[in-house]
Structures are given as C-alpha cells and as structure tokens.
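Sync notes, pocket subgroup
Present: LS, DG
LS reminded everyone that the earlier model was apo-only. Rerun requested with nicotinamide-adenine-dinucleotide included. Inputs:
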Amino acid sequence: MTLKKNVLVTGGAGYIGSHTCIELLNSGYGVVVFDNFSNSYPETIRRIEKITGKSVILFRGDIRDQKSLEYSLERFGCSIVLHFAGLKAVSDSILRPLEYYDINVMGTLTLLRAMQAKGVEALVFSSSATVYGEPCTLPLTEDHSLTAINPYGRTKLIIEDMLRDFQASSPLMRIAILRYFNPVGAHESGLIGENPLGVPNNLMPIVAQVAVGLREVVNIWGSDYPTPDGTGIRDYIHVVDLAQGHLRALEVLERSEGLTVNLGTGVGYSVLEVIKAFSVASGRAIPYVLAPRRPGDVAVCFADPSRATTLLKWKAQRDLAAMCADTWRFQQANPKGLS
Ligand code: NAD
Ligand code: WQD
C-alpha cells in the first residue's frame, strides 16, 4: 500500500472522530489525534490501535491554543485536518452558551489561523442537520434555507459562514462541510462506541442504558406529532457509514475546491420504531412512558442524501437493525462506558 498523508483529527478520541480514525488508519493514512479529553478518554485511543493494529500519534491539547495546533501540524507533517472537536449538546448550549461560542466558534477560528500559518489547505468540518432548523420541505436538501433555533445550532451556522468566507478568500483552500443527521451505532468489535459522560441527551444511548438496566424507563418526548404513530421521526445513520463518508470526502477534496453534503440515509424512523428495533436486537423489554414534547424538537427530519451519492459515490449501508445490534454489543461489553 502506498503511504498516504498524515491527517490531524481534532476530537479524534470522541464518538464520531474515533470511528473515523479507524477508517483512516485502515486506508493507510497516518493519524494524529488532537484532543483535550473533555468528553472522552485516552483508553479509546488504545482501542483504536487494538482494532487496527496501527499506531496513533496523540497530542493532548485544546483547539483554542493556536501554538499547540501549529506545533502538531508541523511536527507531524499534517496536510489535512478533520475537525470534530467541540461541544454538542443542545440543552447544555442553552445553559452555557458562552462555552459553546468559545469552544466551537473561537476554537474553529483558532484552527483556521493555525492552518493558514502552516499552509495546510484541506479541512473537513463536522456540521449538523441542525442548521436547517424546522424543515420547510422534506427530505432536506443542502439548499434548504439555513437557520438556528438554539445556541449550539447557531455555533454551527456561524462556523459554516466563516468557512465559506475563508474559502472564498483563499483560492487554494479546500473545505468539506458535512451535515450529519442522527449518528448512532458503534464499531462492530464492540470496543468503541458512544460513551456519554453523565445523563445522555440522545435517544439511542438512553434506550441502550435502559436495555442494560442502568436506567428504568425511556421517556418518549411527544406522542401527538403528525406522524403515523405520533412520535418524532429522525434519520438515524450508523457511525461507521458516517466515518466512511469522511474518507470519501477526503478523496473528493483532493480534486475539488470544496463541498457541502448531507450525510444521512434518507430514511426516517419514529421513536417507537427505534425502541422496538432495539428490543429485538437486545432480546430485552424496553419500558417507556409517553411524556410531553421536548421544547425545540421538530416532528420529522430526514435527509435527501442524493448529493452525497453523486459527489462522494457514498451511500449508507447499515440498517436500523445493525445500528441497534452494534450499539447493544458495545453497551453490553461496556455497561458503564469507558473510563
Ligand atoms: P464527542 O463529544 O464524542 O467528541 C468531541 C471530542 O472533542 C471529544 O473527544 C472531546 O474531548 C473533544 N473536545 C471538546 N472540546 C475540545 C477542545 N476545546 N479542544 C480539544 N478537544 C476538544 O462528539 P461527537 O458526537 O463525536 O461529535 C463530533 C462532532 O460532530 C462535533 O463537532 C459535533 O457537534 C458534530 N455532530 C455530532 C452529532 C451527534 O449527534 N453526535 C450530530 C451532528 C454533528
Ligand atoms: C431523537 C428523537 C426526540 C430522547 C440532536 C441534536 C442535533 C444532532 C443530533 C448534533 C426525537 C426523541 C430523545 C429521549 C425521546 N446533534 N427522544 N426521548 O434531537 O433529533 O438531534 O442530536 O448536532 O443537533 O438536536 O436527537 O437523539 O435527542 O432525539 O423521545 O429521551 O428521540 O424527541 O424525536 P435530535 P435525539
């Protein structure tokens, strides 16, 4: 195999970053993880190495520290950056917005300055379907209007605008903006997966914790939505499919100036359908109660993934059963998560 480039992966010890590191290593890239472990553990790096049989270079640092970023880019000869680091919980962003602006927006600005200083001209950024706000039309295409309905979403929107402005001013800069839908699932080894600190916000980790007995019941936030069973519908995407989408984006970025694509399956499932599928995958009953709607939630959200199919030649392969089975394998092997 020819030796590929070294990639700086900010937030590479986190949920999506760690799965992407595996795909990078398996494809021959050198991986430099830059993470401050505010929402992850070094143990994940050890497990990435175990799964791939390859070494990861680890730099413990904060993305708001330009000197550390510059040092890592230069010292390890990185010519591409995959930027996952940041804060991601909507409810938390309402409670402490300044942290979100600081880490997400200032952190990305600092990263761009470091890249500029070191002449690094390719970036893949983790955006989110949250930038579409309340869907006006479905499925969501990339040219749907952009808006934000909470501080977290606003940070993603500000960063996207900043990236577009930066790219327009720097002809050699190549930026991929990837808008994830609802990432779930885990690596099939059961060694790495989503490892939320404290009480999870998202549906799948909560369902998994109820199945394993860590939590008593799933609260279903809203059963009166205009959907077939009254519960909210989302486009859940297996994290390994998502990680593979990053690999395709990197390859396409080699020969294009930039791209913005949805990474979703195009298929929506309701909360009740997810609970039922998880119950089948785990062989466990999953108690739930119907509760009032959660403020800020939309009824239905799913992607039009056709631009990713055309531009990246990428399509999600794993179905809801696989998402649940892989989440369950990780949850069972690590009932209390990694530490
Ligand atoms: P995660 O919290 O598991 O991973 C983020 C990583 O970044 C962690 O390892 C954390 O320690 C690190 N980090 C945080 N602040 C840092 C800082 N200041 N300096 C250095 N490292 C720092 O989150 P994730 O689910 O893997 O999400 C990755 C990216 O994808 C985020 O930007 C998130 O907003 C975006 N995203 C996530 C989802 C989702 O549902 N998981 C959906 C859409 C977009
Ligand atoms: C999914 C469905 C809930 C928990 C969030 C962010 C989004 C993106 C992904 C980062 C909804 C229902 C949930 C529970 C429930 N993250 N639910 N009981 O809200 O679609 O998206 O994560 O970018 O920006 O907003 O994901 O997993 O929280 O919810 O009934 O205990 O499950 O109402 O219908 P969401 P989620």
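DG: The mean pLDDT is 96.
LS: The domain at 6-184+236-264 is CATH 3.40.50.720 (Rossmann fold).
Action: DG to write up.
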